Amino acid sequence: MAAVMFSVAGLLLTLLLTETTTASALHFASSFRLCDRRRIDKIVMNLSGIAVDERSGKLLLVVNKPMRILVYNPATNMVERTAHTDAVNDGEGVTWLGANRVGGAYEFAVVDEQAKTRKIVKDPSSSRIVVFDADTLQVTGETYGVDVDILHNKGLEGLAYDASRERFYAVQEKSPMRVIAIPRGDDREPGGGYETVIDNQTAFRGVGITDLAGATYVVDGGLLLLLSQEQRRLALFDVENGRFFEDEVFDVSGALHPEGVAYDAQRGKLYVVGEPNEIFVYCRVVEELPEEVVVLEELTNLVSVG
């Protein structure tokens, strides 16, 4: 009898585990509420990107004209450091990378929307990903050219990173809207090679997205949160299955000009930044577990006892 119970419970557990990512994703957007809105006094205009330093919860902000990187402490509402850089011409998105696999130094990366216009480095690629040391705020020398067609300043706007797969995800604003994947390290094809993850314009518009301004990686297993500036909207995309979660769309309508998004999983915070100098903070609200998660836990206990 115990063996039969074990077999049945095990089968049901296997079936439910295939839905674990879907179940958790379907409650992502609804679990956040706007809890704060700030203006950064030291930024006059052109705040365009944000990432979370996972060690401290401090925020890395990318600002254009002049191009600089700021370290902002949300706990004190203060800009702690500012670093000007000429390594990036038109920085738009920024993403946290974590510890380097070789030396262990912590790093982040910035996407340069129009690298081809840079004069100090001869790079034929239209866009570039530039890696920085998170402690010195200086370039490491690791760069990736990304040769995408750019029309009317509609190039790569946002950047996310999957550390488990060592893959960058970059979003192109328009002409066409698309998400591309760029492998990090020695496995990358020469000549700015990349893989198109999604460029289905109908799928984008199906969740109310008419442009792409930012992206952040939110869950191990391949989920991206994509930001539309024109619609002031966030949508959750399943990279593994190539589809949007149509119920996981929520508005950031209070933002004047949203440009970037970052997710702090450790602290349950979601950040949206926009021009000229705004930060919107969304806090995760603990709610009752969905029924499928409760059943999954019960079946897990049953298998353990059997």
Automatic annotation (TrEMBL):
The keyword Signal applies. It comes from the Eukaryota. Residues 1-25 form the signal peptide. One of its GO terms (cellular component) is plasma membrane. The keyword Membrane applies. It is found in: Cell membrane. Keywords: Cell membrane, Membrane, Signal. It holds the Pfam family SdiA-regulated. This is BPP domain-containing protein. The lineage of its organism: Eukaryota, Viridiplantae, Chlorophyta, Pseudoscourfieldiophyceae, Pseudoscourfieldiales.
